[in-house]
Amino acid sequence: MCRHLAYLGPEEPLGRLLVDPPHGLYRQSWAPRRQRHGTVNADGFGVGWYAPGDPVPARYRRSGPIWADPSFADLARVVRSGAVLAAVRDATLPGADGAAAAAPFAGDRWLFSHNGAVAGWPAAAAPLVPALPPVEMLSLEARTDSAFVWALLLHRLRAGEDPGRALAGTVRELAEAAPASRLNLLLTDGTAVLATAWGDTLWYRTGPGGGTVVASEPYDDDPRWQEVPDRSLLRADRAEVRLSSLKDPAPAP
Fold it and tell me: What positions does the domain Glutamine amidotransferase type-2 occupy (predicted)?
């Protein structure tokens, strides 16, 4: 459930990344090609982007389907960025959190998205609650598994943990508590993209102009797309992509 995408590269209109491709995130909201769980991603959407000179990202999120928001078409046509994270949502469970439950989540300079589900939510995650200070539990943006996953990860990041190690540690912690979980996580600070493949599809593409796209599935049939093996950690910048195994105890930074 859910589809998401991150981009780093030369400035592009949001629409060129999300709407114009023949199988872009816009179309994936009703016709994903490789989604293994769920069929329609109509429970909200969001896009976050970075403006030159400002390390804190902007976000636009809504609770309904992306195709039903005429304002997004205007925004996507004129807003340009060289660092973007966007997602369309298929809810794990019904809820009343609205746009607050739609990725990307944000904290400090980070944007985050979760493609998947914490199995047995919320009971299976209860043993992990003590890992968070009470104020962080009370500050959750939404009462969803994805918001809780983000709180666990952000706690590690704010403690100074390397982002790759923080992602890997969060995934292993959740997988141990809820073994059937699907934990494809996507994280960016506008200069790098980190992602995990754990139970669902993840692909990446690098372009000749220095751009890198990491996504749940390819948005076109360009042969440069490469699939990330399951149980992998991906680190990317505008120049290269590196993969390491999440089965290793500590993927190297």
Answer: 2-253
